[in-house]
Amino acid sequence: MSRLARQRLNAFLDMLAAERGAARNTLEAYERDVEDYLESLGGKAPGDATPEDIRGWLVDLSERGLKASSAARRLSAVRQFHRFLYTEGLAGTDPTAAISGPRQGRPLPKVVSVGDVDRLLEAARIACLQEGPTPAARLKALRMRCLVEMLYATGLRVSELIALPRSAATTRERFLIVRGKGDKERLVPLNEAARQAARDWLTALAEAGLADGRWLFPSDGESGHLTRQVFARDLKTLGGAAGLSAPALSPHVLRHAFASHLLQNGADLRVVQELLGHADIATTQIYTHVLDERLKSMVRDLHPLADGDRETGKE
User: Is 3 known to be catalytic?
Assistant: First the structure.
């Protein structure tokens, strides 16, 4: 690294410390990332760097085996470095302006199997039938059964589920009208198991003297309804009782299971998009790995040439 490059880097780090109050560990991370980049310039002054220099450095990072997320973090540091040089008048241009970050594939959602969900639901039902629990423990068990039955039946966002109105449990229809993101309404299915769990939960609320109220899952907290943190904690406890891995289980995982299991059984991606309340089909396309496997299976099982060798030369 040239002396000028070192001076520019030191000035950048001083700015981060003085104006942004960056901690020591943060400064060290920035220094490592920008140093790596400056070394790749081979002695060229930072102010003379071009977009091609930065693209070449990104290619080198990829060839060194860095993940896209790590390369993106390093590029972010270099962007800030060049922006600093430009705004301070130490460079005539910002070569990072024309650079797109490394493409980061969206991680596939964690999904539990149909068998795992069956075990979870069965554990919730058994907990409601146990003899001898305190009234509070039985009420909690009935609430959890209602929550998991409704979540797996509807695929609701956890924020939508915990804030359901009391009327959601009294509908005679086999669907709910849910108000989701952007204040948009959508219809979601409600199977008989979920409807029965909701009826049992309402009966238990009435017996506990809690028949009146706005929310289906009332709480003494500020919001007036169950919090997502409490639901997530209780779900992990139920998962442990069902023999499932607690770290791999969350309300969001059950929402993903709802979508994935529908697609595995032949549902259309557009239908799943509507049920999940995704405004853009691109969001739902994280499940295309499920569709890929289904399509492979269909070709294998249904294609006329799948079970035999193709005969050539026949009319």
Answer: no
